[in-house]
Amino acid sequence: MPGSWPQGDFPGLNSGNCQITSPATSAYNCIAWAAGTNKQWWDPNGLYYWPPNVPREVTIEAVVQVYEVLGFSICIGGMLEPGFEKIAIFAKQSGNKRVPTHAARQLDSGEWTSKLGACEDISHAEAVSVSGPAYGNVAYFMSRPKSPYPA
Amino acid sequence: MASWIFTTQVTNITVVAIASSFLLCGPNADAAQDVCPVRDQTSYIHPTGPPVIVDAALERSIQFQRLVSKWRSERGATSSIAEMCTTPAYLSILAMGPDALPLILGQLQSEGDDPDHWFVALHYITKGVDPVSDQDKGDMVKMSKAWLEWAGRKDDAR
């Protein structure tokens, strides 16, 4: 599993619980990928795409709002629930505040998929498999009813 | 006694000669060929040609490429543009100022269909230019195209 990411950033990833599922690219990031697109890089920086009416700020609240706009709401845990899509929002401590770092999306199998910055996207067994020095820990799980119409 | 001194001196000279030869030639045959004169061949220890002249533009280009590599390593797996564009290498590129503009645009062009995150640097160095339309924000290929077209228009205007 030699991805292009710094191996020390993800001590929970190993060849048994993770698979690379795309080449490395700067075309999209984790926030976009968790929302279901690989066509854009979503970032609150004014030069990039950010959903309308969501504050362009690097806060957990703003990232939660991004997914609320898409129909997600905060839920209790990351267990697989038939009929629901789930995402996990990660945050880490920076000084005296917690900053959002990453979002992962649950697959139909119950595994998770993550785009690691400008590196590859991967599938991983548990949401917390990507916890560590780079992304911190899961701050929120969010869910929404699955669309009856496949994308 | 005289005979003993003479013999000892000869032995010492021999030992010093062998040791010097080893130090000069090195333990492998290639090193020996580089340094030791071979019969009927001229040998050079140092190049005798004129010094290579590196002009300022080439030096900047080399420095820029070095910073690009360093930046890609420093940014790791972050998804945050704020974090990505405040690494020491990216800040060093910003600090190059207008000199970096043609280098960044050249880099962007060379990256083709998978452009990297040069837009913050371009925006900063051009003091606020943003040629990307709202509907194309986040689409990296379209963002890159907009900047390269902007550069083309700028060149045409000269």
Label this structure with key terms.
heterodimer, A: mainly beta, seven-stranded antiparallel beta sheet, 7 strands, 11% helix, 29% strand, B: 158 residues, mainly alpha, globular
Protein architecture, described:
The complex is a heterodimer of chains A (151) and B (158). Chain A has helices at residues 30-35, 60-69; strands at 18-20, 73-75, 84-94, 97-106, 112-115, 121-124, 137-145. With 151 residues, chain A is mostly beta strands. Chain A has one domain. The mean pLDDT of chain A is 95. By secondary structure, chain B is mainly alpha-helical. Chain B folds into 2 domains: 1-49, no CATH class; 56-157, no CATH class. Chain B is globular and about 65 Å long.
- Helix % of chain B is 55-70%
CA(first)-CA(last) distance of chain A: 30 Å
Task: Please count the helical segments of chain B.
Answer: 8
* Class per helix and strand makeup of chain B: mainly alpha
Number of helices of chain A: 2
What oligomeric assembly is this protein in?
heterodimer
Order of helices and strands of chain B: HHHHHHHH
Beta-strand level of the residues of chain A, as a percent range? Answer: 25-35%
Low-confidence stretches of chain B: 13-38
Poorly predicted ranges of chain A (pLDDT <50, ≥5 residues)?
none
Describe the structure concisely for a colleague:
The complex is a heterodimer of chains A (151) and B (158). Chain A has two helices and seven strands, in the order βααββββββ. Chain A has 151 residues and is mostly beta strands.
SSE diagram, text form:
The complex is a heterodimer of chains A (151) and B (158).
Chain A: E1 18-20, H1 30-35, H2 60-69, E2 73-75, E3 84-94, E4 97-106, E5 112-115, E6 121-124, E7 137-145
Antiparallel strand pairs in A: 1-6, 2-7, 3-4, 3-7, 4-5, 5-6
Chain B: H1 2-25, H2 29-35, H3 56-74, H4 81-84, H5 88-95, H6 101-110, H7 119-125, H8 140-157
Helix pairs in contact in B: 3-5
